[in-house]
């Protein structure tokens, strides 16, 4: 089974979510999430009545399935707040692209080893062999195909590049949390 997700997370992966309930309440009040849905023993949410206004779907005729699990196939939209974790995690799927140096654009082949080292020591910077500048691993140019965070707002049923969060949704997330957010796409399978 293929899984496609649009994932929102803090722009700074060190940020933690002060109050999970406040965020979920505000997302419900804004109409982004709807009624709860239990999947594999975990709390998910159906899309709310303003879901399609808070995500901007691109292209002339995107396919968006807002139905029930099993009724419309595997790629129906649902939402889950994943985390909070003690420390930032790396999250990527089969669509991950080779990251690049933010300074000079150097392609970072062997990035899997760099991420494994980061998991062991998150303070250790990466030094670009081309320009010599140092960056933290989350600062590399992941090109919206991987992310880092202590929690993630996962939205199933959104294909890579098919939708982006609206400015209204990003503003709401910033107001509730007190920090900026970013997004990326994940595909598994």
Q: What would your notes on this structure say?
A:
The chain has two domains: 3-94 and 146-188, TATA-Binding Protein (2-Layer Sandwich), CATH 3.30.310; 98-141, no CATH class. Helix 1 runs antiparallel to helix 4. A hairpin with a 2-residue loop joins strand 2 and strand 3. The chain has four helices and twelve strands; from the N terminus they run E-H-E-E-H-E-E-E-H-E-E-E-E-E-H-E. The strands form five sheets. Strands 5-10-1-12 form a four-stranded antiparallel beta sheet. A two-stranded antiparallel sheet has the order 2-3. It has a two-stranded antiparallel sheet with strand order 4-11. With 189 residues, the protein is of the alpha+beta class. The termini are close together.
What keywords describe this structure?
single chain; 189 residues; alpha+beta; TATA-Binding Protein; 4-stranded antiparallel sheet; two-stranded antiparallel sheet; 12 strands; globular
Give a quick summary of the entry.
The protein has helices spanning 20-29, 51-54, 111-120, 167-177; strands at 3-10, 33-39, 42-47, 55-57, 78-83, 89-92, 126-127, 134-135, 146-149, 151-156, 163-165, 181-188.
Topology:
Blueprint: E1 3-10, H1 20-29, E2 33-39, E3 42-47, H2 51-54, E4 55-57, E5 78-83, E6 89-92, H3 111-120, E7 126-127, E8 134-135, E9 146-149, E10 151-156, E11 163-165, H4 167-177, E12 181-188
Antiparallel strand pairs: 1-10, 1-12, 2-3, 4-11, 5-10, 6-9, 7-8
């Amino acid at each position: 089974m293929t899984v496609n997700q649009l994932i929102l997370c803090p722009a700074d992966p060190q940020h933690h979510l002060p109050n999970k309930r406040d965020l979920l309440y505000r997302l419900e009040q804004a109409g982004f999430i709807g009624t709860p849905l239990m999947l594999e023993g975990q709390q998910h949410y159906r899309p709310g009545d303003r879901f399609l206004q808070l995500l901007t779907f691109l292209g002339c005729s995107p396919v968006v399935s807002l139905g029930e699990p099993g009724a419309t196939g595997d790629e129906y939209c649902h939402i889950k707040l994943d985390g909070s974790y003690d420390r930032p995690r790396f999250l990527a799927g089969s669509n991950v692209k080779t990251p690049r140096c933010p300074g000079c654009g150097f392609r970072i082949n062997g990035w899997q080893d760099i991420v494994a080292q980061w998991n062991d020591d998150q303070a250790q910077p990466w030094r670009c062999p081309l320009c010599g500048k140092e960056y933290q691993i989350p600062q590399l140019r992941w090109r919206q195909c991987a992310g880092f965070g202590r929690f993630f707002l996962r939205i199933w049923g959104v294909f890579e590049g098919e939708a982006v969060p609206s400015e209204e949704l990003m503003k709401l997330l910033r107001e509730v949390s007190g920090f900026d957010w970013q997004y990326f796409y994940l595909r598994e399978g």
